[in-house]
Amino acid sequence: MKTIYVIFFVLLTLEFQSCSSIPGASEPTDEQINAESLKAYQEVKAKAKISTNKEWTAMVDRVARRIANASGENFKWEWMLIDSPEVNAWCMPGGKMAVYTGIMPVLKNEAALAAVMGHEVAHATKRHGKQRYARAIKGNIIGAVVGGAAILGGQMLCKTSTCKTLSGLTGAAAGFAITFFDRKFSRGDESQADQVGQKYMAEAGYDPEEAIHLWERMGAANGGKAPSEWMSTHPSEEHRKSDLSNWLPEAKSLYSRAPQKYGLGEKIKSE
Ligand SMILES: [Zn+2]
Questions:
Q1: Cα 114 to ligand 1 centroid, rounded to whole Å
Q2: 105-123: burial string, b at 16+ Cβ within 10 Å, e else
Q3: 89 in any annotated domain
């Protein structure tokens, strides 16, 4: 038991040091962040149970491709559909995405999936939380230093369920993943991801009005709880709805110019 406390203390100390020593000058470059992100993504992928649902996989493939194109970002895009009851989705820096099967029935249609993926991709394209990734890279060092102990430390440091699930990663990617999955974006970042995400979905050919209805359903499905990143620090549901409604005319005008229009896309049936 004593060992656990020692490891915990070491992790906290390192974490504190990394927090307090991030001058702007040493901000990591996109290349550094993307390299760490790729390692963590590959480890997540190796551990994850990939969904065998062909319909859902095909839908995630086409929506991810369209949102990636709409973003105009030259990332080395990758994505996967993870078989897990979690209501979750994320996009790591550099364009590594995951959607969890647990979110699919809540979405109800393809356009809502586009809204979620648009939001997540916007966090990556707008380089949100660069400082957090600076911490994550230092977290990587923590992972490398304590080796296997990072798994245990990760469980103790994690606040979110995704972090707890994925902190079982081993080796150098563990620290990065722990920090990445336990992060919270600021309200300002979340609001920007909503706005930019709504534009991406519109440019990708999905009716941007669905973003408003999606967040209503997400609120109801989560019953006020905060299981995933975009529920945890977001503006209140009312605030979010009024923002998305205010941005709708601009998104609609992008939608009207989209080369292909899919409306709400296909319905998502329960498994
Ligand atoms: Zn978000």
A1: 14
A2: ebbbbbbbbbbbbbbbbbb
A3: yes
Give backbone dihedrals phi and psi of 118, rounded to 5 degrees, phi first.
-60, -45
Q: 268 lies in a domain?
A: no
Question: What is the β-pairing status of strands 89-92 and 78-82?
Answer: unpaired
For residue 270, tell me if it sits in a domain: no
- Ligand 1 centroid – CA 145 distance (Å): 31
Q: Measuring CA to CA, how many Å separate 237 from each of 116, 212, 232, 246, 263?
A: 15, 10, 11, 14, 24
In total, how many domains does the chain have? Answer: 1
Distance CA 113, CA 201 (A): 9
Whether 148 is in a domain gets the answer yes
| Domain enclosing residue 143, as ranges | 2-257
Q: pLDDT (tens digit, 9 = 90+) per residue, 78-108?
A: 999 999 988 889 999 999 999 999 999 999 9
pLDDT in tens, 161-193: 676 666 566 555 666 776 777 667 888 888 999
Task: State the catalytic residues.
Answer: 120
pTM: 0.82
Give the Å distance between the CA of 199 and the centre of ligand 1: 15
Look at residues 192, 246, 241 and name the one whose alpha carbon lies nearest to residue 219: 241
Q: Which residue has the tokens 């990065």?
A: 176
